[in-house]
Specification:
The complex is a heterodimer.
Chain A lengths: L13 H10 L6 H12 L5 H13 L3 E3 L9 E3 L1 H28 L2
Chain B lengths: L1 H16 L4 H20 L4 H17 L7 H31 L31 E4 L15 E4 L9
Antiparallel strand pairs in B: 1-2
Helix pairs in contact in B: 1-2, 1-3
């Protein structure tokens, strides 16, 4: 069995993963991120949670802030961020497939 | 009326934003205030936004930073807890002493009251005190007759008492 890449997003929390998913299709600022996450995941991110997650992701080098547009800072996913998101989604997919299979076999 | 409400909500959010460390405020404060204004305009209650920022500020203060290692934070917390425990122990220790102190004079040495012995036949002055004299154990007939050690007693006083 080939060694799997390390999933750095395993311990960063759900908000960080949702933000990375939202940034995967292009840069966004805080308000757009909150609206987008609410739309695709049904999760309402609080502004305090948002900035905590943005800071953490930026420290990890998974996102970067772009020059301010008026008072808003758009954020963009970096190449390591995209790679980490891919690894994490693969891992979630494996867990999801295993869960579905076992539910089928168990007849639950 | 509407403007006063907006101003009050703005103050609430500003107060929450002031709870963040200065480093965070320099970086995000303007943007965070603008985001709050947009969310309020969308119908999000200002109190909920302020609460979210407060929780975020608490997390920001508690999160370990490169220059402020987790062990240093833990050591500071431990030292604070030790100081609190020490203070509590001091308070607990002085409690009974204070309670006992209510039956005693407030301060200063307690004056020794000695009854003057009645003038004996041979003495000239009526207030002449007899000096302490060593009494052997067998002569002591007080509360601890068999203590087995010599005692000093005021001879001539109404009761034999140790000094």
């Amino acid at each position: 069995m080939a060694p799997r890449e390390q999933d750095v997003l395993r311990r960063v929390g759900e908000a960080s993963v949702l933000i990375l998913v939202s940034l995967a299709d292009g840069p966004k600022h805080g308000y757009a991120l909150i609206q987008d996450v609410k739309q695709f995941a049904g999760v309402e991110l609080g502004p305090g949670t948002l900035y905590g997650a943005l800071d953490r992701l930026e420290r990890l080098g998974l996102i970067e802030s772009l020059p301010a547009d008026e008072r808003r800072h758009p954020y963009r996913i970096t190449a390591p961020g995209a790679a980490a998101l891919r690894v994490h989604l693969d891992s979630l997919e494996r867990v999801s497939a295993a869960g579905r299979l076992r539910l089928q076999l168990g007849g639950a | 009326m509407m403007r006063a409400r907006e101003a009050r909500e703005g103050r609430l959010v500003d107060a929450a934003l002031r709870c963040y460390p200065a480093r965070w405020r320099r970086r995000h404060a303007d943007e965070a205030a603008e985001l709050a204004a947009l969310l309020v305009r969308d119908g999000t209650p200002a109190a909920s936004i302020a609460w979210s920022y407060l929780a975020g500020a608490a997390r920001e203060w508690l999160a370990p930073r490169p220059g402020r290692s987790l062990s240093r934070v833990s050591a500071a917390l431990l030292a604070a807890m030790c100081l609190l425990g020490f203070s509590a122990a001091l308070v607990a220790e002085t409690g009974p002493a204070k309670a006992a102190g209510t039956t005693q004079p407030p301060s200063g040495p307690v004056p020794l009251k000695v009854k003057p012995t009645p003038p004996s036949a041979g003495s000239g002055s009526p207030h002449q005190f007899t000096p302490c004299r060593l009494i052997l154990p067998r002569q002591v007939t007080g509360a601890f007759p068999d203590a087995g050690r010599p005692r000093l007693s005021l001879q001539g006083a109404a009761h034999a008492r140790s000094c």
